Amino acid sequence: MSVRLSPAHSRETSPKPSPAAKTRRSPAPTFNTRRRGVTRKRSSVLLTILMGVMAVYALLPLFWLVVNSTKTQTSLFSSFGLWFSGDFALWDNIVGTLTYNDGEFLRWLANTMLYVVVGAGGATFLATLAGYGLAKFDFPGKRGVFAVVLGAVAIPGTALAVPTFLMFSQMGLTNTPWSVIIPSLISPFGLYLVWIYALESVPTEVLEAARMDGAGEFRTFFTISLRMLAPGFITVLLFTVVATWNNYFLPLIMLSQSTWYPLTVGLNSWNAQATTAGGEAIYNLVITGSLLTIVPIVGAFLFLQRFWQSGLSAGSVK
Question: How many beta carbons lie within 10 A of that of residue 198, not counting itself?
């Protein structure tokens, strides 16, 4: 008579594999697996070295600027450029920079702030409005506008400086702040960036719901869409601020009097006066002024980076 065992009984009576058998069954790492591990380790080491070289390349000029801002005019050329030497004259250099020629540096700083607040701020606002409109509204000629924007991105600003100067000269706007502010209001790259960002970050369903509730287009933009566009808005703002803060060629050809100079043109005039007849060499003040010039930009990046982080977090929550 045959006896059939139930599945539970067969599981209880079946011999369990020993730990040694499990160990024997586990496949040993193959040569390809070991080779992939070695390749990954080598690539990570190579990337670390590459990032270290790039960090040194980016931070070495800043370190040179900090070190030489602490030197006097005499020790500036008689010591090693990448280390401190002589008396620590950083405070004296800062005071000399701010008070030289009746506080000329402070006037240039105020001019630069004016150009940044009005020019870069206006360019960011206009680029956000235009990019949002191109992304969320359909109208005749939209493809043509897209082609014009791409063409404007490809044209460097220096190629338009001379025609802009001739046009502003005919209008009588040269040697005025408007000759620097008005061209700074146009940012084709910022418009394109907001356009692409608005396509994905502002859902069309949200806009339709706001319209059904009776909200107008401007109210919808300022109360709903602008908050969703905050990371893109801050990105464009930083790009335009840096471009306006470092703008040199346009103010150089537009402005003939130092009264309206920005910091870039003003510091270059200080640097060039050593080569003029009867000019005074103030290289220590030029270097210290350059250090003071980059402090607001670094502070702006450190302050505004939280908006990027909040934008990334919001995208991950969605």
Answer: 20
CA dihedral 88, 91, 92, 98 (to 10 degrees): 150
Q: Report the candidate in 74, 73, 84, 120 with the shortest Cα–Cα distance to residue 233.
A: 120
User: What region does 100 belong to: left with phi over 0, alpha with psi -120 to 50, or beta?
Assistant: beta
Q: How far apart are CA 185 and CA 191, in angstroms?
A: 11
Residues ≥6 apart with Cβ < 8 Å to 196: 131, 135
Q: How many residues appear in the chain?
A: 318
Across the range 199-222, mean pLDDT stands at 91
Q: What is the DSSP string of 219-248?
A: HHIIIIIHHHTHHHHHHHHHHHHHHHHT--
pLDDT averaged over every residue in the chain: 84
Mean pLDDT of 116-120: 95
Q: Where does the pLDDT of residue 318 fall: very low under 50, low under 70, confident under 90, or very high at 90 and above?
A: very low
Report pLDDT for 66: 93
Both structure tokens of 57: 């390349």
Task: State the Cα–Cα distance between residues 222 and 211, nearest whole angstrom.
Answer: 14
Determine the angle formed by the axes of helices 230-245 and 121-136, rounding to 10 degrees: 140
Q: What is the set of domains in the chain, with CATH numbers? A: 41-88 (no CATH), 95-317 (1.10.3720.10)
d(CA 3, CA 300): 84
State yes or no: pLDDT of 257 exceeds 50.
yes
Q: Could you tell me how many helices (H) and strands (E) the chain has, helices first?
A: 17, 0
> Tokens standing for 259?
């009264």
pLDDT digits (tens, 9 = 90+) for 180-189: 999 999 999 9
- Sign of the Cα torsion 253, 259, 263, 265 reads positive
